[in-house]
Design a protein that fits this description.
Elements lengths: L4 E7 L18 H7 L3 E3 L2 E2 L5 H10 L3 H4 L19 H7 L3 E6 L16 E3 L5 E3 L8 H8 L1 H7 L5 H23 L6 E7 L10 H6 L9 H13 L7 H31 L6 E6 L21 H4 E2 L1 E4 L7 E3 L3 E2 L3 H6 L5 H5 L5 E7 L10 E7 L4 E5 L4 E4 L11 H21 L12 H10 L4
Parallel strand pairs: 1-7, 1-8, 2-11, 3-12, 4-5, 4-7
Antiparallel strand pairs: 2-10, 3-9, 5-6, 8-10, 13-14, 14-15, 15-16
Helix pairs in contact: 6-15, 7-10
Length: 453
């Protein structure tokens, strides 16, 4: 089989339950819904890790955090993928692909090593990280890239009110130039984007609220809401029900705006005649707890469905009829799916009866407290959570914790966990490196996103 073009888009922090293709009451994702009507929708897909950095590293390598070593960011090991671990982009490049990446997230790029193997790469602050020969960046883009360090440090409130949409729009525009530039080429093209409108803070345009029949915010509300939301993310205050409802409205409006940009990408594929023969993979790297669960509860909220259950939609080359898959799907299979055109999506993504999630707490923040590893097994109905010190929890279909009379089910999950852990230890990597120093620009952005105090 001829290697197809590939469009791989990560919708950062998108909760599965807020996507209209998965039944959400508001039409938050009409373009994604349209794609699902002629593609394969995985009803029970799970991330390998419930936050951006290890999740992306797992998708790009096919390995779990304990294997690739990028776990909780600051308090152990490293932020970067070891050079000894090949990424899916490096594999595609070796197979003759032309490759381009456009990232909205500071974790996803040179900071983590995910930019390896790309012919073109544009970083979160619009820096041209890898400059190829397709001329997708304008003179203005190049001037901005040259001054990105100063601009990144200066881009605080109120400039940040426009920053997210400006950056998202710019990245998508560059990606569309890339898609047009490579449409007539003989070598296949791999296009990757990370878009993060669903990651707080939220500044969706007014027309996104209006499209969902929601009340648009005034000039002050977005800044006030996001200031209070950041305090919640950092654990400084609660999220009262009335504020949480408004946050979810901002969240849904952000999804609607982001979906418009996704539609722009899909339209370019159709315009250039490459849509039918392109492998399209759309997923989220993790969900988001917006007041659904106690942030200080046990097991950690990050091990629960609101964070681990993600949308995943795959359109194979030539596919025009919808399919729904109920078997558990794991995002670690994306690497094989993208690099092996002979492999059916279900074989790459649903190879086992359960999916594994690994979480290392705390995630980031240069915390002095020790790191605790949690592992989760999910089968689409039940959820088994276990810490490295032996604490275990079993949750039913409604998300409620099951009582002690479920010993056969608990034992089945416990035995499955042992098998998975044994397999991980056999393949684990021993590579280690010292933690990286972060530039002030990146630290500033991570503070805005709630990763740093």
């Amino acid at each position: 089989m001829k290697n197809p073009d590939v469009l791989f888009v990560i919708l950062d922090s998108v909760r599965r339950d807020r996507v209209s293709a998965y039944g959400h009451g508001r039409t938050t994702t009409p373009n994604l819904d349209q794609l699902a009507s002629e593609a394969t929708l995985f009803e029970h897909a799970y991330t390998a890790a419930p936050w951006t950095l290890p999740s992306h590293c797992s998708m790009f390598t096919g390995l779990f955090p304990s294997e690739h070593g990028v776990t909780n960011g600051f308090s152990d090991r490293s932020l970067r993928l070891p050079e000894s671990i090949e990424t899916l982009t490096e594999r595609l490049s070796a197979d003759g692909y032309r490759t381009a990446g456009f990232s909205n997230n500071p974790w996803v790029g040179s900071l983590s090593g995910i930019d390896r193997g790309f012919d073109e790469y544009v970083e979160w602050d619009l820096e041209i990280g890898v400059d190829g020969d397709t001329d997708i960046s304008t003179t203005r883009d190049r001037l901005y890239s040259a001054a990105h360090g100063l601009l990144a440090q200066a881009a605080r409130q109120p400039v940040f009110l426009l920053k997210r949409r400006l950056f998202t729009s710019n990245l998508v525009n560059r990606a569309t130039r890339w898609l047009r530039a490579t449409a007539g080429d003989e070598p296949p093209a791999f296009t990757f984007l990370n878009l993060m409108e669903a990651h707080s803070p939220y500044f969706p345009p007014k027309d996104a609220f209006e499209a969902l029949d929601l009340s648009p915010p005034g000039p002050i509300e977005p800044r006030l809401l996001n200031t209070k939301l950041l305090a919640y993310v950092l654990g400084r205050n609660d999220l009262p029900p009335e504020r949480r409802e408004r946050v979810l409205e901002f969240y849904d409006a952000s999804l609607r705006y982001q979906d418009r940009k996704l539609g722009q990408l899909l339209s370019i594929l159709k315009e250039t005649g490459r849509y039918d023969d392109t492998l399209v993979v759309i997923a989220s790297d993790h969900g988001k707890n917006l007041g659904d669960l106690d942030r200080d509860g046990t097991p950690p909220h990050s091990t629960r469905g609101v964070n681990t259950d993600v949308p995943l939609i795959v359109k194979q080359p030539g596919q025009d009829a919808p399919e729904r898959v109920s078997d558990p799907a794991k995002l670690t299979g994306i690497s094989d799916l993208v690099t092996d055109p002979e492999l059916p999506p279900t074989a790459a993504l649903c190879s086992e009866e359960v999916a594994l999630v690994e979480d290392y707490v705390p995630h980031t923040g240069r915390a002095s407290e020790p790191t605790t590893r949690w592992r989760v097994l999910v089968d689409g109905t039940h959820r088994y959570v276990r810490s490295e010190d032996g604490r275990e929890y079993l949750f039913g279909p409604d998300g409620g914790q099951l009582s002690g009379d479920q010993e056969p089910l608990r034992n089945r999950f416990s035995e499955a966990m042992e098998r998975h852990v044994e397999a991980l230890s056999e393949r684990g990597t021993e590579d280690e490196s010292d933690p990286e120093d972060l530039s002030r620009g990146i630290e500033s952005q991570l503070e805005d996103l709630g990763y740093l105090e």
